[in-house]
Amino acid sequence: MKLLIAIVFFAATVPIIYGQEKSPKTSSHKDEAAPRKQDAPQPPPTVNLINEKAANKEENRAKSHPDSYLHRLLAPENLPNIGLFFAGIIGIWIANRTLRTIERQTNVLSESQRPRIIAEAGEHPSQTLSEDPQTPRVVLKIINKGLMPATGYTYESWIEVLPDTTGDFTPYADHHKCEVVSVLYPDTPQKINIPLREGISDQDWPLVRKLKKHVCVRVYAEWADPFIPTRRCYADFGFHVIPNGFGFLDKHNGVGYKDKRG
Questions:
Q1: Disulfide engineering: 214 pairs with which of 50, 102, 144, 240, CB 3.0-4.6 Å?
Q2: Range 27-50 average pLDDT
Q3: Is the entire prediction scored with pTM above 0.70?
Q4: 124-127 long-range CB contacts below 8 Å, 24 or more apart?
């Protein structure tokens, strides 16, 4: 009976021992296979390296060759601003032309409104010179042909017997300056009597009649500019007596203005 029990016990323990001896071998094989799988070589990340090199090349090219100012200026995002810039220039040009036109029209209107002084014979000069040989005289008529009155109006006059009509009056001319400041209204003539107080000598009378000497007269008128307070307008008239009226002295015929200096 004891022998039977011993045989049964031996038969039960032998497989267990044999299985324990084999199982370490199996795990060792598995452990050897795992390192082999882990040590398998991985493919190199060549794609990432190539992209990084290309990006670096582009950055280096952008740094070494930056965009020009003109290229950046003409970039698409700047085109609306460029269009507005040129539109503004065109608008300024049109406005400037319009202002110039308005200015010209305003000047034309102003000139048509200003006082315009003219001078003409008030009486026939041949008659006024010969009617009183002791005090020969010339009468001129000053007329404002403008639409506005000439305020601050004054005048000066000269008269003299001269050998020709191209020269100027000498210091011996009979000169008169009107000190009374007045207003010359439109189409209201003012007669100015200009006497030759020293008279004409007996030697000069035959020469005057033959036009070898000339009775010359000048009137210089001034008045205030109605639009510019610091400006004085003037008209200068020069004549010489001829049998049928007046001839003009080229040296004393003109109009203009003078600005006062502050």
A1: 240
A2: 50
A3: no
A4: 124/245, 125/215, 125/241, 125/245, 125/246, 126/241, 126/243, 126/244
